[in-house]
Amino acid sequence: MGNPVIELKLLDERLRQWGLPRYQTGLAAAVDLHACLDTPVVLEPSTAPVLISSGIALHMADSGMAALVMPRSGLGHRKGLVLGNLVGLIDADYTGPILVSAWNRNPPGGEPITIAPGERFAQMVFVPILRPEFAVVEEFSTDSSRGAGGFGSTG
Ligand SMILES: O=c1ccn([C@H]2C[C@H](O)[C@@H](COP(=O)(O)OP(=O)(O)OP(=O)(O)O)O2)c(=O)[nH]1
Fold it and tell me: Mind listing the domains of the chain with CATH numbers?
């Protein structure tokens, strides 16, 4: 079976130069998102996140997919650029601009982060979505070996 196709709108023509969404390597799981800015944005450490448009809109319709916006590993680990919502969930029926909540997680007094127009500042991965129905019960029909143990209960 081939890869699914979903509709994508370019909301910012500069993406044609900066780069259309594409997988950087043959088996890459995510496409990078570009910061559609007119001027650089400086994020001071530990201040409120800033919403930055990626300049694209998607219509996943009934593809059975959703998308997740995630930090880029290098920027997150080395510079402290992460997301104000930690992970962004893009619903299949959301057709507005995909926005990225850019947050400088460095502690007060740490390094500011500058995001340049066109910079690849976040990434987006597509995931299949299951939508189970819920059968409300008083007791579960089968036991499990873990039971209610969690939060480190296995040592
Ligand atoms: O990082 C993000 C997260 C969300 N969205 C868009 C797509 C998503 O489908 C919509 C709503 O997101 P979510 O359901 O997480 O937000 P909410 O706070 O629960 O608001 P809503 O009442 O709009 O669902 O906002 C983005 O563009 N970027």
Answer: 7-128 (2.70.40.10)
